[in-house]
Write a structure and sequence with these properties.
This is ribulose-phosphate 3-epimerase. GO terms for molecular function: D-ribulose-phosphate 3-epimerase activity; metal ion binding. Pfam families: Ribul_P_3_epim. With about 240 residues, the protein is an alpha/beta fold. It has one domain (about 10-225): TIM Barrel, CATH 3.20.20. It is about 30% helix and about 20% strand. It contains 8 helices and 8 strands, in the order βαβαβαβαββαβαβαα. It has an 8-stranded parallel β-sheet. Helix 6 (about 185-190) runs parallel beside helix 8 (about 210-225). The N and C termini lie far apart (about 35 Å).
């Protein structure tokens, strides 16, 4: 899946579900120490997906300990129920699943009214055109590259045409991918046009988490933004 170059800046979002959960604040700061950094928080309800993770109370507890941007991904059956709680907990972006709501337009309005950015996620079996009517009103589209809710699956490269379709139609959109992604397959995501990359164990289990983050960022700068090697983010010493 090859696409046009784009100018959207890269963001690498370490997925905190893959960290040492007994040391959540320490782990968040280890991989996202600056205000310009990002973390991804997976909220699972045991209903929309089979797993149960955490909710607004955990996000709220973490908020005073982290300067990073909180991208909260709601894999829940009734996302509208959690807009107020997540806003009060300090979420910066509220990403809901298109499959989980009958009123995406109303939900988008509610999320914005609560002061958060808005993302829409699609599962692997959901066609990408399901989000076209809403792209103009949201900040981000998340293309899942695994079936949400099961850990340890491998990256589905056959989702890259969805990413390429979005990038072709919406050059100014932030496009996120999530599931099984690391330095070994980042180039496929970058070439397709993704610029927000969720990475769990590939960051937290790396010998150098920040090294893994920069390697993925450089792939997007090179293959997505078309930057020459001398203008890429420098690798950590």
């Amino acid at each position: 899946a090859l696409c046009k170059m784009h100018v959207r800046p890269p963001a690498i979002l370490p997925s905190l579900l893959a960290c040492d959960l007994a040391n959540l604040a320490h782990e968040a700061n280890r991989v996202a120490p600056e205000k310009t950094d990002y973390v991804h928080l997976d909220v699972m309800d045991g209903h929309f997906v089979p797993n149960l993770s955490w909710g607004a109370p955990v996000v709220k507890c973490l908020r005073p300990h982290s300067k990073a941007f909180f991208d909260v991904h709601l894999m829940v059956s009734e996302p509208a129920k959690w807009v107020k709680d997540m806003a009060e907990a300090g979420a910066d972006m509220f990403t809901f699943h298109i499959e989980a709501t009958d009123d995406a337009a109303g939900l988008i309005k509610a999320i914005k009214a609560a002061g958060m950015k808005v993302g829409i996620a699609i599962k692997p079996k959901t066609p990408v055109d399901s989000v076209f009517p809403f792209v103009a009103d949201v900040d981000l589209i998340l293309v899942m590259t695994v079936e949400p809710g099961f850990g340890g699956q491998s990256f589905m490269e056959d989702m890259m045409p969805k990413v390429a379709t979005l990038r072709e139609r919406y050059p100014a959109l932030d496009i996120e991918v999530d599931g099984g992604i690391g330095p070994g397959n980042i180039d496929a995501c970058a070439r397709a046009g993704a610029n927000w990359i969720v990475a769990g164990s590939s960051v937290f289990k790396a010998a150098s988490p920040l090294g893994a983050i920069v390697a993925m960022k450089r792939s997007i700068e090179r293959l997505g933004n078309g930057l020459p090697d001398d203008r890429l983010t420098p690798l950590p010493a």
